[in-house]
Design goal:
single chain; D-Maltodextrin-Binding Protein, domain 2; 15% strand; 318 residues; three-stranded antiparallel beta sheet; alpha/beta; 15 helices
């Protein structure tokens, strides 16, 4: 069975403007948890709407609690623009963001930044430096040290189907895309660094495409309701469901390295917050993050114990 979708095409500027306009009507969602400690400022830690974000936000919250701060957790705040505006308005003090998403917020394109023949690691550093400087200048928001994971967008297919079509990289879809359906997160369908830009860069157009909850994409692919999904490269379900990730052979997707982002006002009020959260620098790689995500998505564990156990294993709590 195929699923019929509809989607709108947005430029980078229109995407930012349209999504920001809707943010005002979006209330902070999810259960709040507050821990009263001494006279230090209360800190609100937010996350967007998928497992990895929940885990990383809880790690931030746990480290701040361990340092004696009153912490309120606000999970499931929608997408990138929602949590960005929540931080700008002061409703959120700390969240984890990805460098590729930061480029979108700043209306930048990695293709316009990098020089010809630039090595991949140089691109990673360049993108991080650009978003760090841009956020500080435009939003008084401070990017801390990268956590270590690169959760970039990726296209995933059922292994048997990909092998049947002889597809190993995205450019191989040129001969097949018109006959295939794609399911993506709501953001991927609209974002210029998602489907619109991907189809333009590769000269392809899927027969059907549309958005769905990110947690449902993997089941839809497994059930053969769609042929391709916009997976996250650190999602453990790629492993457990034996999906194959297609090589981004044209290097369309920018690096999506994760790092805590903190309101500048909080750093001014409590400078030690930077040192506390920078304890997360380099503590995760993609495969470890995938396993943590899988323990929640497939193993049925609760987010907070997963985050706490890992920080304890790294000697960062207690």
């Amino acid at each position: 069975m195929k699923v019929c979708f509809s989607m709108s095409r947005l430029t980078r500027r229109n995407f930012v403007a349209a999504t920001s306009a809707g943010v005002a009507a979006t209330a902070l969602a999810g259960p709040a948890r507050t821990f009263a400690q001494d006279d230090k400022p209360s800190i609100t830690v937010g996350s967007t709407n998928y497992t990895e974000q929940f885990i990383l936000a809880e790690m931030c919250g746990l480290l701040l609690e361990d340092a004696g701060y009153s912490v309120q957790m606000e999970h499931n705040l929608g997408g990138t623009l929602v949590i960005h505006e929540a931080r700008n308005s002061g409703d959120v003090d700390v969240h984890v963001e990805y460098t590729g998403s930061g480029l979108t917020i700043l209306e930048m394109d990695v293709a316009d930044l990098k020089e010809p023949e630039m090595a991949p690691e140089e691109v990673v550093d360049l993108v991080y430096d650009e978003v760090k400087a841009g956020y500080a200048d435009q939003f008084n928001a401070i990017w801390l040290d990268p956590i270590g994971i690169n959760n970039t967008y990726a296209l995933a297919m059922r292994r048997a189907h990909a092998e049947e079509l002889g597809v190993t990289k995205i450019s191989d879809l040129e001969a097949h895309a018109a006959d295939l359906s794609l399911g993506g997160s709501q953001e991927f369908i609209a974002r210029p660094d998602g489907l619109p830009g991907l189809e333009e860069a590769y000269g392809i157009e899927f027969g059907e495409s549309g958005g769905m909850e990110s947690g449902l994409m993997y089941q839809a692919l497994d059930n053969e309701d769609v042929d391709v999904i916009s997976a996250f490269s650190t999602d453990g379900r790629i492993i457990s469901m034996d999906f194959v990730l297609l090589e981004d052979d044209k290097g369309f997707f920018p690096p999506y390295y994760a790092a805590p982002v903190v309101r500048g006002e909080l750093i001014e009020q409590a400078p030690e917050v930077e040192e506390i959260l920078n304890q997360m620098a380099g503590i995760l790689d993609d495969s470890t993050m995938a396993q943590l995500n899988l323990s929640v998505d497939d193993g049925g564990e609760e987010v907070r114990p997963v985050a706490q156990r890992y920080l304890e294993e790294q000697g960062l709590l207690g």
